[in-house]
Amino acid sequence: MRSTVRIDDNLMEALRARSEEEGLSMTRMLNRLLRSGLAAETAAARRPRFRQVTARMGRAQVGLDKALSLASALEDEEIVRKLSVRK
Known about the structure:
mainly alpha
């Protein structure tokens, strides 16, 4: 069957280069690429959709507006602990 298709210039150059590289006519190369693209598309449609399982972490134990000061205090405690272990 014949059909007229508009192909971007850069795609046409890549198609021409690939067909010359593999020693095939441009028609055969185009048909091969279309078949593989359509097969990949249908294979992707058969894959189950990814669903992320989530879990509740409960209520915050510390006011979130003071998270930076809490992080700083925890860091300071860890530094003091490391220094006391060295002695």
